[in-house]
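Task: encode each sequence below as structure tokens.

Item 1
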Amino acid sequence: MTKRESPISKETIKSLTLDIEGSLLSFDKFIKAQEQLAILLHEVDKTLANKKRPLINWRISQVHSGSIHLTLEGMPQDQITPSQISEVIKTVERGIVTILEHPIRPKYFSDRALESARSLAILKKRDEFMVQLGFDSRCIDLNQALIANVDEIIGGKYQSFGTVEGVLKAIDVSRQPIFRVYNLLTNKSVKCYFEPDLLDNIKEYLEKRVSVSGIVTSREDGEKIGIKVESIALFSEEKDLPSIEEMIGILGGSN
């Protein structure tokens, strides 16, 4: 099945399909995939409704043999309308698209919902399956970007304005434009997310020591793992730094 891109439908939809294409999918992994999809739907459902328990019941409406094509359909009830079911599915769709593009928590996605989406994507990472979620006429590939971004979202508990210093390397504009800044002492890197209009300036700083300021995402232990770039400054080259004699003069120590 190929990936088809289209805008999120404005029509009322009541089902979504999990596609797993590949050989030798074990029964245990099939059950786990089904469970994780159910958790994802239930978590978004109850968060969207601001309830402690999910409101919508889901049933398996189709299963195709060969590669797995599992379709879950929301069941309208007395107090559950088709539009409510559709809103849950569209919220899941928007959230998955957001996570694939950015390490940003989608609205109505709890930690458990994020972990379930990650578990589905891990099937592909470990066993060379193609894993997709189908929404109406749109299929979304659950790939390695989703795993990395969920790790960053869940790992980063704190955000504040701050600065990251180090050597700028590894510019990547294939998705959300990012570069990495490497600490010279630890060799650990921090992902720096920037707006496309900064690309030309950033290219000039490649392999140079920089100071990047913006909103920093940190783990509980204080380790910085990401920053949304607001400004970037270049450190002076060592050869451009003032000599000891010049510094004495600058500080007013010479006669």
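Item 2
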Amino acid sequence: MSVCWNCEFQVQDGWKFCPNCGTNLGDRTTGALYVVDATTGLFNAVFMQAVIGQEANRAVRYKRALSVLVVEADHAESIHREMSAAQLNQLLKELADTLVRSVRDVDTVGFLEAEGPPHFVMVLPETDEAGALLAADKIRRSVASHDFQSGGNWQRLTVSVGIATVHHERIGPQDLIDQGFQALQNGRGSGPNRTTSRHRRPVPRQGWRQEEPIGRWVTTSAGPPNAGISAQGARPLRPMNFERTSDSGH
């Protein structure tokens, strides 16, 4: 065993990089490559930008579906005022764990170190706009049904979601995080616990979903607990905390 020269973490002999901080063990002129957020345990904004760029390039080149979700806790300012920094960190970690459990194992969840209310980002490969709406609604139900042990007076939380989707008629990858933020802000006028996406093409109605067009945007409110299914042509969502579901595609 040896010790990392940067963080003093014990590493096995022969390793080239430290598993704790990412430093090149054989080159002291390099800096540490941190890809994990210390508070939430999720990938950080720098790493997520790289993931989104790579996935967007692949989606455009091979004409594959790709969606990005930007997630924000509702009433974030009130939560921030009422909780200490330590309590907030614990709540963010618990919320992060809940979000990870609500998506598929092929999806990537990260934390954005943005000023103001904390935001999470999710990268959903092989998922079109209709499938992303269903995935986002499942995420919101998962959060709303969770009893947050670290939340103090906020044991029940809701989140709102903004959706951005790669559209192949455009040239090159889009800045999907900015589009997700824009969708999230456009849906804020409809109240908390909402999913909002730019309405570029007709979204198949699922019967239970309440659609409220806002200009070129579509906002959906929560549906029943058994709605965690994929849209036609999208990859099935992996069921987690809800009853078994089936793929609605043909």
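Check on item 2: Confidence is low (pLDDT under 50) at residues 200-217, 223-250. The helical segments are 45-62, 76-82, 85-101, 129-144, 176-187.
End of task.
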